[in-house]
Amino acid sequence: MAVIAMTLFLRTEMHKNSTDDGNIYTGALFFTVVMIMFNGMAELAMAIAKLPVFYKQRDLLFYPAWAYALPTWVLKIPITFVEVGVWVFITYYVIGFDPNVER
Q: So where does this one cross the membrane (predicted)?
């Protein structure tokens, strides 16, 4: 998807002269946010598959709901940072958010 984004918004320098340039900039930012958001949708099937275990433990009063959901949420944070880092590393210069590669 990063390669598709790079070819869709290909420019090594983002112009800031008109509203059309602003629309392209906003579109690239929106596409990035949507891609990051939908990366978590792949884990939805796994979460639904774990629901019978959750309901059984809840009905037998083993663990509260937060004790079941909190570790999964905390473990997703570093994975999300890695995904965002890879996305930004691949697309930031090519899309043209910053014309300087060193940044």
A: 24-49, 70-95
